[in-house]
Amino acid sequence: MYPAVVNTLFGKGLCPTSQSELREFEEHFWKYDEDFEYASQMPECFLRHPAGCDINTQGSSPGGGCTLLQHLLDNLQGKHLAPSYGLLMLWASQANAVPIAFWTLVFILSDPSVYKKIMEDLTSVFGSAGKDEIEVSEEDLKNLPYIKWCALEAIRLRSPGAITKKVIKPIRIQSFTIPAGDMLMLSPYWLHRNPKYFPDPEMFKPDRWKEANLEKNAFLDGFVAFGGGKHQCPGRWFAIMEIQLFIVLFLYKYQFVLLDAVPKEVKDLCLRIAQVGKDLKDHRVQPQPSHPTPTLTALR
Fold first, then answer.
1. Where does this protein hold heme (predicted)?
2. Which among 8, 97, 91, 93 is positioned nearest to 43, based on CA atoms?
């Protein structure tokens, strides 16, 4: 996913894609990650020789038009911030799309009926699976809506992190007034498990997305993975297309088998952490430094 996306957004040659360049990239990344708070001072390392490259030349797409990076730079007020915005765009295009593509594959393979339907859809569009190369057009993706539904359902179940907003003006909600300057946090994880909007919320059910008006860029009510209102993630449809295209190519060319069952989420731990936080706030319990800190292991 990485080479295709960075070449599309940045133009060929601007971001590392070869093995040697990626090794150098990794070295810079670890140095960058160790001092993340100084991010704005060192993102130049993520662009290939930025001082010596002509962004107007390398920022062009194969078809002769401008890349998204070039459009960004053309409208940027502070040109010195270009590397920081470039790094932000690189992170935004990869950080969530890659793990969601993984979970989409996992959920599809964990349900034989879903997997069978997808393979039937792929065969109807491209013929028998297993060809060395295929070209996937926008029209092809429109004829494969079920894969898009699978991606959206995986996003619903595995939305990472939280969404924060700063209060600009005091807001009154029921009997509470939230003052300006406070930060509000939204949890997609819990909202996406509200049975009012998503019946059987823990189940992977791609067909629920049949009710969404995706042709008019509208999600299901209660779906907030990309934020809400007019300030939703501007790259949301690119990300969904990216995941959909990845799934098409992978499942068409290769046959997969899950080695392990989909792991169950540790809900009790989440609830316990929330309760401990409430107890600490209410001074009902005190932290115990002598107790070992719980460790969360990454799921495969």
1. 233
2. 91
Residue 45 pLDDT exceeds 70:
no
- Residue whose pair of structure tokens reads 């990239």 in the numeric block: 25
How far is residue 59's CA from residue 63's CA, in Å, rounded to a whole number? Answer: 12
Compute and round to an integer the Cα radius of gyration of the chain. Answer: 22
Distances (CA, A) of 6 to 12, 205, 296: 8, 31, 31
Question: Quick one: angle between helices 82-94 and 97-110, nearest 10?
Answer: 0
Residue 239: is it exposed, middle or buried by C-beta count within 10 angstroms (0-12/13-18/19+)?
Answer: buried
Contact 130, 253 (CB under 8 A): yes
Structure tokens, 199: 């019946």
Q: How many residues would you count in the chain?
A: 300
Domains of the chain: 2-94 (no CATH), 97-253 (1.10.630.10)
Q: Is residue 2 over pLDDT 90?
A: no
Identify any residues that bridge with 177 across adjacent strands, giving them in sequence order.
172
pTM of structure: 0.74
How much of the chain is helix, strand and coil, in % rounded to 5?
55, 5, 40
What would the pLDDT profile of 148-191 be if each residue is shown by its tens digit? Answer: 999 999 999 998 778 888 999 999 988 999 999 999 888 898 99
Q: Please, is 140 exposed, middle or buried when counting C-beta atoms within 10 Å of its C-beta (0-12, 13-18, 19+)?
A: middle
**What is the rounded distance in angstroms from the CA atom of residue 277 to the CA atom of residue 48?**
45
CA distance 7 to 62: 10
Quote the strand ranges of 158-298, DSSP E. 163-166, 171-173, 176-178, 183-186
Q: Say how far residue 44 (Cα) sits from the centre of its chain.
A: 24
Task: Give residues with Cβ within 8 angstroms of 272, minimum separation 6.
Answer: none
pLDDT for res 64? 54
Mean pLDDT of 220-226: 93
Instruction: Identify the CA nearest to 102 among candidates 247, 253, 208.
Output: 247
